[in-house]
Amino acid sequence: MLKALLFFLVTIGAIVAAVSFNKGHQQKQFIALFEPVPDSTKSKERKMEDKIIRTEEEWKKILTPEQYRVLREKGTERAYTGEYWNHFEEGVYKCAGCGAELFSSDTKFDSHCGWPSYFTPLAGDRVVFKEDRSYGMIRTEVLCAKCGGHLGHVFDDGPEPTGLRYCINSVSLIFEKRPKK
Ligand code: FE
């Protein structure tokens, strides 16, 4: 009887420990994303020669009016209207402003939100983050590290392995088909 009771207590203890560990882990991820985001757009790690700097007049000549509105004026395309929200070919999604390779089709997932969604960029240094307090919300803006173009926002409701959803405007991207060898 005593043995059975001891076994019961140990089992309950193990379950409580597992649940609280998992909770702590989730909490940590949440805080990491929603603590005031350090402005990484001014990171000194990236050399100046790697960056593309153009005047607004130059951008207006290069981009279409819709690309300019989203990339340079932080606009948002209407949900379910962009070219890539329902696009699942194999390849690479490049910045429409500067051609930097930003996202891979390998990390794209169907988020049903109306915009192309990825759980990670191609590499950590391809994008930078900035706190966005517009429209009464606190969001994390995602920008192209090379040209500073506005891409979209990142949220913490994505799938494994990162738990993140990079919600990106199609108009900020240009897809290049690149079948796997
Ligand atoms: Fe860019």
Verbal overview:
The chain has 181 residues and is an alpha+beta fold. The protein has 2 domains: 1-36; 51-177, Metal Binding Protein, Guanine Nucleotide Exchange Factor, Chain A (Beta Complex), CATH 2.170.150. It is built from 3 helices and 9 strands. It has helices spanning 2-34, 56-62, 65-71; strands at residues 91-95, 101-104, 108-109, 117-118, 127-132, 139-144, 150-155, 165-168, 173-177. The strands form 2 sheets. A 6-stranded antiparallel sheet has the order 3-4-8-7-6-5, with no helix packed on it. The protein has a 3-stranded antiparallel sheet with strand order 2-1-9, with no helix packed on it. Mean pLDDT is 84; it is low at 15-36. The chain binds fe (iii) ion. Fe (iii) ion binds next to loops.
